[in-house]
């Protein structure tokens, strides 16, 4: 069994198509197909369901794929370890972050890059469920997501900050000069919100339900930037997480007003696949995390805007 065969298998799972997988691996499609057939012969199991096109993996193939991801991740970790011994950490740190936490990723990646300039960083916007899945598949090194809400599987958790919610609203609107706003007071307010597939939105919907109201947004979007763009027209308001202020702040003509704290608040943190030894790049990010007090930085930022 060759590592290259496992790389072909991983690419096929990722691309879902023989031709695209071959292109991603810089080989011909017949060469990729032949390598996978040879792997099937060596293991004496059928791995791929074949028809006129790729139709998925057999039950045995899914198990082989899981081991392939694990073996490739360990090989990657070994290379990082050796590179570090040669004179500095290098490689690609793969981070998946929920959209509501993307705004704070740079508070961790910037000091990491300063300490390890040879490390390259890949940051993807993913749902909390995608992060859990890709960590299990060894397709991510670290996730940034909610750590005390929906199931995370077998992962290591490092809390970063507890999310607070604010109303971002026009400066000439009815709530702009309030000290705080109750969730139930927003029942008839035109709102622009994240889409319901996102955990942040599900949390906010539960907060509204706890206050005894159901809110139907006038506009839904799947990015924080789209939320700000719509609220910036001063036609809508939005419930935002205070971490968004780090990047987007409070645009001219708008105000932020604290929402009354719900019964339950949620923490955002790092999640890592439970592996031993811990990959060096993930360990380097953890070390950086211990040097940065995200909770204090975000709370201080929020206080400045409220003042």
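^ Assign residues to that structure.
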């Amino acid at each position: 069994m060759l590592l290259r065969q496992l790389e072909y298998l991983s690419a096929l799972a990722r691309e879902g198509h023989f031709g695209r997988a071959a292109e991603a691996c810089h080989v011909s499609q017949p060469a990729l197909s032949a390598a996978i057939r040879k792997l099937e012969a060596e293991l004496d199991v059928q791995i791929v369901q074949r028809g006129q096109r790729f139709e998925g993996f057999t039950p045995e193939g899914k198990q082989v794929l899981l081991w392939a991801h694990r073996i490739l991740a360990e090989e990657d970790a070994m290379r990082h370890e050796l590179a570090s011994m040669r004179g500095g950490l290098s490689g690609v740190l793969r981070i998946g972050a929920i959209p509501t936490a993307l705004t704070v990723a740079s508070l961790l990646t910037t000091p990491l890059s300063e300490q390890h300039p040879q490390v390259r960083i890949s940051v993807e916007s993913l749902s909390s469920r995608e992060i859990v899945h890709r960590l299990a598949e060894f397709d991510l090194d670290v996730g940034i997501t909610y750590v005390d809400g929906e199931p995370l599987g077998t992962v290591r958790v490092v809390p970063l900050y507890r999310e607070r919610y604010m109303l971002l609203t026009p400066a000439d609107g009815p709530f702009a000069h309030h000290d705080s706003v109750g969730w139930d007071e927003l029942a008839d307010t035109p709102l622009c919100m994240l889409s319901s597939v996102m955990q942040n939105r599900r949390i906010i919907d539960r907060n509204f339900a706890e206050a005894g109201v159901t809110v139907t947004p006038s506009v839904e979007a799947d990015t924080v930037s789209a939320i700000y763009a719509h609220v910036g027209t001063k036609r809508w308001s939005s419930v935002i997480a205070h971490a968004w202020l780090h990047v987007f702040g409070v645009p001219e003509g708008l105000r932020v007003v604290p929402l009354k704290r719900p019964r339950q608040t949620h923490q955002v943190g790092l999640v890592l696949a439970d592996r031993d030894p811990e990959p060096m790049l993930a360990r380097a990010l953890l070390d950086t995390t211990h040097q940065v007090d995200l909770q204090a930085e975000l709370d201080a930022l929020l206080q400045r805007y409220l003042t």
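The CA atoms of residues 232 and 251 lie 7 Å apart.
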